[in-house]
């Protein structure tokens, strides 16, 4: 693995930086970064890791938010990154963004989601290198109403699209245009921290040392299909007692989920704990992590479970095949209750299997998803000279992925 740049926030650049041709300018170059919101989500955490890795000798980032501020605003401001909230109607936001970047004159624009990719259209004609992102199953996170138009707008203004799953990368490549695959990174969890988190959460949930805890994490929205999660836990519980906990902000599904849990006889064995300060703490308390989603990009929660050494059972959504090795670092089951329940039950009944899978998953997360290395790759793609084509992007990424 090549040596990685280590400079951040005004420290001297790594020795290889000038050889890459990124440090030859007269001071840091402005870059406009955009995200839809700063709520407590996995995509927002990835953005924070990206900005934290910024070499401030080379880049001067400004973060634009097209929707709402939230949990990640303060940590990002603490990095010294200005945060600008765009207000008004969608057309007005577009006009205000164009006016702002005409003043800022960024050499690059990095949209962090397909939803904000259309803002690249505001930069056409300004000579700005425009990088977009696809962090879900291609266009699945775009509004259903007018999705075909949204889909066209999400790619039309881009110089380069970055995908966090190979499946989406292949789909975009088939449509033409330059695209690159960069997986998500995940921070390692020190053993002492993991043990403290596990002890605290299991005490909070009233769990005995031998009780099996199945955990799910995500916003309570239809996409995450926590109804499926409940069905799986209920099916496993017919033969083996297990406890379960779901963490995530309720966006309208909680009443139905509570009713379903009651009908399935899961009370009091199921805990809906709401939004938590750091979902990794709850994940460390788990014996099994269950992903029940209908579609995803590269689910951060699965990577976080792997980093915690918790074996995963997952539906075969978009990038799961990129991160879970079936039977080795977890189980990739179907979308049906029986297949998922069979995998969960197998783990619940075999402590040695849980340990072996968890250790293999932790090692894979550390090897393939180092957040510093992957953030460095993304920063290289922001350079207009290095990533003007798919071939150029691949040449950049060969050093980092």
Describe this structure in words.
- Helix 6 crosses helix 9 (279-285) and helix 7 crosses helix 12 (337-348).
- This protein has a seven-stranded parallel β-sheet, sandwiched between helices. Strands 10-9-8-11-12-13 form a six-stranded parallel β-sheet, with helices on both faces.
- By secondary structure, it is of the alpha/beta class.
- The longest helix has 18 residues, at 351-368.
- It has two domains: 18-185 and 370-397, Glycogen Phosphorylase B (Rossmann fold, 3-Layer(aba) Sandwich); 191-368, Glycogen Phosphorylase B (Rossmann fold, 3-Layer(aba) Sandwich).
- 49% of the residues are buried.
- Residues 1-24 have low confidence and may be disordered.
- The chain is 39% helix and 16% strand.
- It is built from 15 helices and 13 strands.
What is the residue-averaged pLDDT?
Answer: 88
Major β-sheet, in short? 7 strands, parallel
In CATH, the architecture of the largest domain is 3-Layer(aba) Sandwich
Structural class: alpha/beta
CATH-defined superfamily of the largest domain: Glycogen Phosphorylase B
By DSSP, the count of extended strands is 13
The helicity comes to: 25-40%
First-to-last CA distance: 9 Å
What is the radius of gyration computed over CA atoms, rounded to a whole number of angstroms? 22 Å
Count of helical regions: 15
CATH fold-level topology of the largest domain? Rossmann fold
Q: How much β-strand is present in the residues?
A: 15-25%
The strand line-up of the biggest sheet is 3-2-1-4-5-6-7
- The backbone outline, from C-alpha atoms, is elongated
- What are the segments in which pLDDT stays under 50 over at least 5 consecutive residues? 1-24
- The CATH first-level class of the largest domain comes to Alpha Beta
Could you give the order of the helices and strands? EHEHEHEEHEHEHEHEHEHEHEHEHHHH
Total discrete domains: 2
